[in-house]
Amino acid sequence: MYTQSFSVADAPGQKPAAPTLSTENPEEMARFDARIDADGRIEPQDWMPEAYRKTLVRQISQHAHSEIVGMLPEGNWISRAPSLKRKAILIAKVQDEGGHGLYLYSAAETLGTSRDQLLEGLHSGRAKYSSIFNYPTLTWADVGVIGWLVDGAAIMNQIPLCRCSYGPYARAMVRVCKEESFHQRQGYEALLVMMTGTEAQKAMVQDAVNRWWWKCLAMFGPPDADSPNSAQGMRWGIKRISNDDLRQKFVDATVPQAKVLGITLPDPDLKWNEARQHYDYGQIDWAEFWNTVEGNGPCNKERLSTRVKAHTDGQWVRDAALAYTRKQQERAMKEAA
Ligand code: BYC
């Protein structure tokens, strides 16, 4: 299963020499580059190039939005979970995802962007969030498969982020990964139970795997050759492992788990390559991926409108919290006077 042991040191020579990025203060820039080269952490109060700040706000806010929108496909099943135990687990999991979104918004705020600006990006449809949450959860087996495969892919991507060069993001990721690990296991266990059930239950698991497998491989982002942000992200120690390498690690870790489960992964080209010591796999439908990222997947519009409605409906809670804080401050001032 997935553990923090996936957090391995970078291969020697993985970081190319620092390019001169901008016309920003060259002394500050040299200090920043030296700290990145020494694998040091950058903290909110430290000087950083504007492009580094912008990249972090982009990635961390997309990540936060993914956690928040990611509550919706599984949230749909809370009222229909097959037992009290499964309902309690699912409520806890969905609540964890909300918590992850909040840590991540807080981490993004340390870079000088307000929560309102971040949310406006999501609600207006300008900001991206993970493609995976734009597909429907048709059966209870989808909830198990999201835990096993979607959270499994998320952990694979996020464990290297625990060593990200930006301190608040890296620290948030440590806790997020621990919780994601529980999410992955609960999904796998739910599927194991279904696979000891009736033929209809087994078929439901296989059908869900068939629908989610390729979408999960696409979650890691475009192939390295088509990934415009990777080179700079790796140089800055934000990304530690490339999209394709993470995807390969995920396939290699998942194939044996599928065997234990007793399901078939829907890829006729999936086979062990002795020379590479990895599994080969088939072609991902990148046109479908980009179509979904651009807002035209099966559930994009529904997800966004549900989020916007939840935010609007929650306005009175924010107003009440602010009024309460103001009242407390006024009282404290009066007492101090
Ligand atoms: N979906 O140059 P690239 C979770 C975009 S939460 C949509 O490779 P980068 C969970 C990418 O943003 C999972 N868009 O970019 C929650 C970029 O567009 P912009 C979320 C994608 O940043 C609840 C463009 O494509 N995890 O699992 O170097 C319940 C080119 O890509 C996707 C994170 O956010 C995608 N799948 O690498 C259960 C982890 N992939 O911004 C589970 C943090 C790529 O230039 N993020 N794009 O307009 C990352 O690690 C990186 O941002 C990515 C992309 C690997 C996702």
Automatic annotation (TrEMBL):
Residues covered by region (Disordered): 1-27
Residue ranges the record marks as coiled coil: none
Tree of life domain: Bacteria
Signal peptide: none
InterPro entries documented for this protein: Aromatic_CoA_ox/epox, Ferritin-like, Ferritin-like_SF, PaaA, PaaA_PaaC
Record GO biological process: phenylacetate catabolic process
Species: Zoogloea ramigera
Stated name of the protein: Phenylacetate-CoA oxygenase subunit PaaA
Gene Ontology cellular component terms for the protein in this record: cytosol
GO molecular function, one term: phenylacetyl-CoA 1,2-epoxidase activity
